[in-house]
Amino acid sequence: MSYFRPEIEAMAGYVPGEQPRTDDCIKLNTNENPYACSPAVVEAIRRAASDRLRRYPNPMAEPFRQRAAEVLGVEPDWILCGNGSDDILTIVTRALVGQGQLVRLPYPSYILYKTLAGLQGARSEEVYFEPDWSLHDVFASGRNDLRVVFLANPNSPSGTMIAPERVLEMAERLPCPLLVDEAYVDFAETDCMDLVARCERIMVSRTLSKSYALAGLRFGYVVAQPHLIEQLVKVKDSYNCDALSIAGATAAIGEQAWLAENRAKIVATRARLAQAMRKLGFKVVDSQANFVWATHGERPVSPIFERLKQARIFVRYMNYAGWGDGLRVSVGADEQIDRFLEELERIV
Ligand SMILES: *Cc1c(COP(=O)(O)O)cnc(C)c1O
């Protein structure tokens, strides 16, 4: 006999990337930013810690909404904040998807979407990316039990992007919301934010974890038309963002010059990393994110992953059932990438 719902018993559970405990390693496995966040963020958190902890935080993270609205060119009531964008994905799934209904996601992509569907007792339908990382029209086909479609754009693990015009075209054909997960979009050349006003089915989620170097703060948000936000609000925890994260995130979103500088460094290192890996015989997909996806024509990559790990260099080995495997390497600081490439050259 089990105390738990059958769908919970049947689930594997989401497994986050390894967080090795010691500081003697090079960590290129969870797409964290290798650089420290803006000092303005730390200062804002320090100030909040000294005078805001006694009271409950603003339930809607209003200071952040105001500031983000100016930066994004939308009204504050188009924004809903979450405890990381994973919280946003949870809220969206819980609000839209009931037991036995259908969630669609691309494959291979962010594994959490399927986990969230599983928690709802919903079914998920995986549409494989084409060999060139585009999506077939099937991704936009209507089915009457389809409740939400997830699209990581840029995608993980590939770092590739579906062009905004194509996203719009697909959303217009879908019978349900399309959640465009823009966790990595600050490293890309385009984004889908403008589409939210043009098509009510498009919701765009973002996070401060990667491009703002604040994975430990836990802050993300979604932009959608206000009548959708109004429904999503009912599903969230009353105080899903704490006082310190609201203060830090509000300062961070105001630091657009810091963001541009950080982005430029990472984009430059990304190009160097991809080129060097190609020279070593890897096939590396052109990336719009802060990581690259690499496979190798002649040799299996799993032993390469193990050898790197022995050298205290952590990358992410991904093995997608029915599809294939590869290495996802986060763009670290230049010295980290130099060490990685040295070790990689020794191995191959
Ligand atoms: C990292 C990541 C997220 C989650 O970010 P958090 O804000 O840290 O929860 C969401 N989607 C994708 C595709 C990611 O890679």
Structural description of this entry:
This protein is α/β, with parallel strands linked by helices. The protein has two domains: 6-30 and 257-347, Aspartate Aminotransferase, domain 1 (Alpha-Beta Complex); 39-254, Aspartate Aminotransferase, domain 2, CATH 3.40.640. Helix content is 37%, strand content 18%. The strands form two sheets. The protein has a seven-stranded mixed sheet, sandwiched between helices. α2 (39-51) runs antiparallel to α9 (243-253) and α3 packs parallel to α9 (243-253). The radius of gyration is 20 Å and the shape is globular. The termini are far apart. The model has no long low-confidence stretch (mean pLDDT 96). The structure holds pyridoxal-5'-phosphate. Pyridoxal-5'-phosphate (PLP) binds at residues 84-86, 110, 152, 156, 181, 183, 207, 209, 215, 220.
